[in-house]
Amino acid sequence: MLSFQMPSSCQAIFRRSFVLLVVALVMLLRADAQAQVQGTFENGGLYTYSGNLNATNIINDEGGTFSVTPAFGTGWLADLYQAWHYTRGLTNFGEMDSLTGFRYDTLISQHAEASSFYNASIINCGAFSNAVFLVQGVTVSGLLLGGYGGIQVWATNVFNSGTINIGADGLGRIYGQNLDFTRGTVSMQNAFLEALTQTNTSTIYATGQVGVNGANWYPDISLLPNSATSALPPLFIPQDQAGNLPTTLLPTTTPYFSVDDDGTGTNKIVRMVFLQNDYTNVPYNVYFGSGFGNGFTTIEWVGSYVDPASGNLQTQYFYMTEDYVQGSSTNLLANYAGGVPNNYGFYETNTRLLLGVPQLSNYPSIFGLNQPFPPGFPVNGDIYSYVNAQLAVSTVSTNSVVNGAITNLPGRIELVASNELNLSLSTLNGMNYLLLNSTNNFDDDGQSLISSPYSDVYLGRTNGTMMVSNLLEANIPIFNGAVQGWTTRWFYTDTNNGINYDYRVLLVESGLNPESSSQQQDVCLYSSNNITISDTLNIFRTCYLNCTNLLLTTNAVGNGAASLDGELNIWDPAMFWASSTPRLCNLTNNGAIRTVTQTKFGSPAMPYFAFVNTGTVSNGAGTVILANDVEHSGFFSSGSGSFVINSIYTTMTNGIIVGAGSFTNTSSIFTVSNTVIEMGKAMTITATNLLTDGGTTNNFWSLGTANGGLGIATGLILPILPGAGDLLGTTITNPAVAGTFLNELWAGKDYGAVNAGFHNNAAIGQLILDAQGTAPHTGYFFSGTATNGATNAIYVDCLQIHDYAGYTHRSGTTLPTLTFNTNLVIYYAQALTDGGISVAEQINHFNGNHLRWVPTYAGTFSGTNLVYPNGTTNFVNAALAESPDIDSNGNGSPNDEDPARIFVPSELNFTITLTNLPPKSVKLSWVTVANGTNYVYYRTNLLSPTWMPFNSFKNFYYNLGSGVMSGTNAAHTNWFASPLPYPSNPTNVWIYDTVTNMPHFYQIVVQPWLTYPN
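^ thats the sequence. predicted structure below, dont judge the formating
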């Protein structure tokens, strides 16, 4: 940051010029009144105001102190200093002090707006007092602002580049047309305390009880190594209707013991803490005071977090002290007056107290049997002390103000500008409530520091982009939550050994968190076009974003941003996204959007142009997206509801979608890769032109887990066949939960048991069918969309059948939990049952021929690599390759025993040779197998996409060891059956084609026939 210092003479000239300008303005506006009042009052020394000051302009120069002595006893609002009558301008370069504060506007016959308020230095509006805190012998003190000091300003132009300090529960209300707080500070007590002692403080609302145990309590039973039970009163459980206080178990405590001896061996003090810490990310330490008889016990909680703006680690410490010796016995009962028992204390700081070495967890054996207590010894009639401390970020509870309204909280700052509000490089903190209202023109350079637990924000820009960046701190670095303690003391004499024991026990349950989220009641933002949000906003009443384009950003740690991302967390179920964003056309979320209701992005009448999500979207009761273009590569949760997309283009990459309802996508083009979809009910995919995952094995979809006991339910649905594309890289898990029968509908074409069915036919990589109950009440019913006797098909690279859908639960040639309409067939290249066992061959033609194997297809989930004797590596169908019954190459050896088990392209050995046989011809020669079918294709142009059947050969030739033989092609087809008898080793066949002026390019296809050995 650049800065410069003007010479004092230049400063004086600058101030005088400013004053003359103000005076000239006032003279023009109030020329008729100047004769009645003093024109300018200027103070350069010490001035104490105790009555009216009639001046058009008030100037407090550098080095000047303007002090107000209030008339006490009339209420703080009446004690505020009032610049009476014709005052139009106030300028402060020095210091202005008032125990109760200042009120600045113009009063003629009634209060009216003044012309200007200019502060470049310090204005103090509050009283001072000293605070002292004792923690285990360590004294901590600091200078505190106190009282209800405040400032109220009403002026056309307000400029504050200095500091305004206000009492903790005061009011800072500044209204005007133009408010400029560039480099200025408005600070209430909490923030001023931080500047003086380098600490933030929580407000502690504590209640407690003291009394005498009314029933026997056995420490050897109630205080164990991993749990603790208090006597009366309980922890976290209030009285019942009869007024009883039942004991309560803390099930996960950690014990800490210290046994001190007075040196004689006859007197021992046993001090102990049993602590349950509900937030494991907030570590703690236990300290026992040194010296025999010292009653101090201190619990230290260490709250650490990374400041997103700087990237630096920040640490806060919270301390709870307990000194039962000081507050015990009759003093404890006598001094308790319904508040906090005087043996407890609390303190918060970001500077660690020097308390020595923490106590290690232990549970010593004192009387044998691994216990520190006398076995079976009851405690009855001893005094107990109990405290319940609730930590909050505001100085008073919202329950204590009128109607619980945060706008009635003491400790408020209100900035209202009818024309322009500038908060560049400003600091506003320490308040309980903040109001920012400037709907016409708001400026902020993104480097302000504004921290408030509660706020209302009404901001806008009539041109350009409305930016919300570093406007509000997302988290306030002070502890919040609850901590409860219960303590008692008893004495015991071991008559066998002559030892007197003084037992002091403290039970603690902690729910402390080192950060508190700031909350906004209303957030209303306006821009003619763009709103960009880079802060975390937690909104609990009204969210209104009046713009056409909305961007939520992601922010790197250490780049100056106060939040890791821009977030809209909308917690009121009465808020709906559609009414909150009436003009929105484009939404880009790189941060987070969270709602508790079903959220509709876009509408049928006004779909978004684009919906882009790379961050987090969580909608408690469902999600509906209506947009021309939907792009998702982040995290989406539809909560208890369904997830619905209606678009022209849907693109999902590297994303996650979860929800308890159904998933529905309706689009022209649906491209989805590396995406996890986990939905509790059905999945419906409609993509008219293209449905594709790119063929990579990175989509994992699960549906139907929330269908349990629903009876008939909807499962996997493809109502229309896309024009192109497949899902061969996608795994779909579709369990039939016990008591549920799933209806599955698929519109794929039925090409038969051929490889063509796996191309541009919405083929699936893996389909996992898991029937978790028996038929007929649990299972699947598969249907197609075809009518009039036609059939549809689901082509699956790997079909997995588990539990009651598995092979072990077959009945003859039927899997009972799989049922089919007559118009659908499932074709698969591999089938696995429980234990990963292949049953592809076994279930072929099961269920009335509705399950069919395609052994010629080898896909990502069905294929395997085999190294052949010729040194080539070949990708083949794994189930076919491991079959003990099939001889694919017709050589007489079953596949699982044959090193070259399946005839592959590398074995074809296709050659073309020019011959001089009349007429001049080319010889096309290749290797074929027994029971194979040989196809010949050609084209005359390599750029042509189509291979044509070649049938211009009258004979084909072969040699089986008895000379050249020939077969005829009288039908002029482009194929012929292999002449080899089964079994035979592969052999050569060839044909001739007469050479012409037209070039020919050839393709040979050999289709082996699956052959079973005798």
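The longest helix spans residues 8-29.
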